[in-house]
Amino acid sequence: MLITLSGLDGAGKSTLIASLRTALEERQRPVAVLHLDDEVGVYAYARMVRDRLKGPMKPAGAPSNGDRTPANPGATSPGRIILRRAWDAIVWSKVLRRLIYPVDLLLFLCYRAYIEGIRKRVLIMDRYFYDTLVDVADGRGWGWIRFLKLITPTPTLPVLVDAGPEQSYARKGEYSVEYLRGRWTAYQTVFPWVRAAVRLRNDDLAAAQAALRTVALERLDAA
Q1: With pLDDT > 70 as the criterion, what percentage of the chain qualifies?
Q2: Strands (E), the chain
Q3: CATH (domain of 80)
Q4: What's the rounded Cα separation, in Å, for the pair 211 and 60?
């Protein structure tokens, strides 16, 4: 079984995933959790290399209240700043990410076959390829985004955590409201294409956790 949670940074995905994992494991259903951006695909591997070389930095085009301090003090030198900007321009290129999207899908299918097929675990994804489609959307050229969605495996339970820009900003404050609004608009376009998707409001955490557990167990029993 594949469960995916998508939504804005600060929507509460990680907290909901932790609660769901506990609920499933209490019912003797072993669980594996993967974060798409950090653990799966070409971009994740490139990001790990970048972070080791220069220290973790915020992606280009994702403004916040202030700059994140690099983990590596040497990353503030002019040469490293130029190198970092060039690296981010390549890694965060929407065109490049669209091109490597099918490769990431193949890598993910390998992870999924191992976790679900061999280890017999429920796989929960913190972010999924629908979030990547939002990342690479530019407000036009939706035909290309639709094609990428069509080749993407539909999860057993795809969830959009329904927390808007202002709410997400208030919780985390990492990215600007303007940036979050742009992403939220793209989610409104992408998620109606997803079959059997669930929009989960997260105004009340306890209620959201209970609702997620209920729908996950229903899909699990039906799978």
Answers
A1: 82
A2: 2-6, 31-35, 122-126, 157-162, 198-201
A3: 3.40.50.300
A4: 35
Give the up-direction half-sphere exposure of residue 43: CA atoms within 13 A in the CB hemisphere.
27
Q: Give me 163's structure tokens.
A: 């927390």
How many angstroms separate the CA atoms of 181 and 179, rounded?
5
Say how many domains are in the chain.
Answer: 1
Look up residue 12 and give its DSSP letter: S
Asked if 74 and 81 count as a contact pair (C-beta separation under 8 A), the reply is no
Sheet arrangement for strand 198-201: 31-35, 122-126, 2-6, 157-162, 198-201
pLDDT digit string, tens, across residues 103-145: 999 999 999 999 999 999 999 999 999 999 999 888 777 888 9
pLDDT at position 12, please? 94
Q: Which domain holds residue 120?
A: 2-222
Q: What percent of the chain has pLDDT over 90?
A: 63
